[in-house]
Amino acid sequence: MNLLKFIAKRVLIFIPQLFAVLLVTFLLIRLIPGSPAEAMAGSFATDEVVAAIEEKMGLDKSLTTQFVMYVEDLFHGDMGTSWYTSNPVTKDIAQRFPATLELITYSLLLAVIIGVFFGLATSFRPNSIGARLGKGYSLLAGAMPEFWIALLLIFAFYVTWDIAPAPLGRISLSISPPKTITGMYTIDALLTGNMRAFKSAASQLVLPVVTLGLCYSGPIMKMTRTIMSDVVNANYVWYARACGLPTKKVNRYVIRNGLTPVVTFIGVQYGYLFGAATLIEQIFGWGGIGQYAVSAVTNKDYAAIQGFMLVAALFCMIIYLVVDIIYYIIDPRSRA
Amino acid sequence: MNNEKPILNVEDLTVQFCTKKGTAKVLNGLSFSLRQGEKLGLVGESGVGKSVAAWACLKIIKPPGEIVSGKIEYKGENLFEKSENELISLRGNEISLTVPRAHSQLNPLLTIGRQLMNAYIAHSDLPRREAKKQAYEASINILDKVGIPDPKNRMNAYPNELSGGMAQRVVIALALINKPTVLIADDPTGGLDVTIQAQIIELLNKMVEEMGTTALIITHHLGLVAQHCDHVAIMYAGQIVESCDTETLFASAQHPYSKSMLSSVRDTGDQWGPEFILPGRPPNPMELPGGCYLNPRCPHATELCRSKEPPYVDIGGGHIVKCHFAKEGGVEYGK
Hints:
By secondary structure, chain A is mostly helical. Chain A has 14 helices and no strands. Chain A is about 75% helix and about 0% strand.
């Protein structure tokens, strides 16, 4: 019951938070010099043409009116129309958001597996092969920028050995995407039993996921190692030993208490990856939401930027909420 | 001297911590023994190695500490020759430890009931389900005994929901749940309010009497020792400098350090005036002075004290003093 109350409270806070994000984004993008109407009309357009376009876009109205109109539309599920793609922003986002979500979710999963495994290995068995590998790896991870790793992987696995598919999107061009349910190809393909699409989508995912997984496992591993080395020497762990708890049980104390803060860190990374995967999306022609946002900014595509910001904010809030719920369940101190 | 075999016998225990800054000699030939049913008070200032000694009795030395020499015998068997598994089944079961500042000693993510049950199950040979059942009963029982109201509900409390005094009671419950033979109470009053201190001491005393536990009480609190201990050992720089029964200490302490301790506390009797208080602080374990470790602070120190370690002298009736000037009947200072 308390948990439900806790969630309800947090969700209520979402509303002012989202509103603030909306307002700030709305004002900030209008600070980008130059009117989007000018950009649309081209460099030879007369002032009258520009003014006409501005009127059509609603840019001639006062900021307040524009904002009120935008929020009103939002309540009807309308995020406006992208001037650049000329699609409704909702449609664009519905298409691209699952692409990014799929990419970063698998990447984070891989990063967590690698990072936590090596992190635990280096703190529990400092002399094992795993620990040594981990130490060397942690020196490398983070030293190389992700786009460079991506290019290396493409060069090795696609160009040289030709075992990976071409880095051109989320599914082979000769295969039609599975029926849209969640928008994530691998999941949709599994749900519809379309194994051909699944295989293709999965193989397209391998290189970008490995790239991001490698890059983002480094910090997770370092974090895990630091926290573990603290927890191993925590008073309560020593006292558990003094009480004669078997080593297995003591280790379980260490892992459980140590991984709690790692959960927060992973959550933060998930939120961060949402925007940070852009470069990788670009390299692999992913058509993700990060790419969409970048082109929206360069084209002064107001509605698209606002839409992206809204979705990104909501995504982060939901992730943090989930992290807090996990915390609530495992750490009684957070319940106060 | 009592000829009965000691239940816990620490002999010439030397523990060092090797760090980059140098070697800290924390215990330097510590020896004492505990006889069945006895309550021994181990007294010394902060930083003389009391806690290290307490943990060493379980053969737990936190890194980078190392046992350099010595032995600890429990019921005649040397702990240092036992396997880790044998030690684990001894810890918290036969020899238990209570620790000060209980809040940080309890796992913050587990209910106190779960922690008590874990301690019980760890030393139970029964099949899991039965052990659990028994552990539950035993936990409620021990919480009730250590004076925690409404123990059934309190089983579900987390450490952060307890006051300092309550947490200390839980630690005592943890130490006593398996009815140990020897209880080592490391600074049981540390970090507690004065009124709570009295309660905790009362409780410890009651529990030890009830269970017939042999107790080693480690403290800097002489009043506590006066009230509850049969014997006292005064510790300085990782050694015992004087040991005798409690009354003897308060009536006629001999070692200058013991005198200094007695005179720095009120209520130890009129004869311990401020004139006995020694200047200075305990030595840094990385730079121990040569000879008697007390010599830089001792008004009676001579060339002999600076060059040679003093022997342990029995001045009569098991009253042992580590001083060059100790002889049968007392300590007489020369020139």
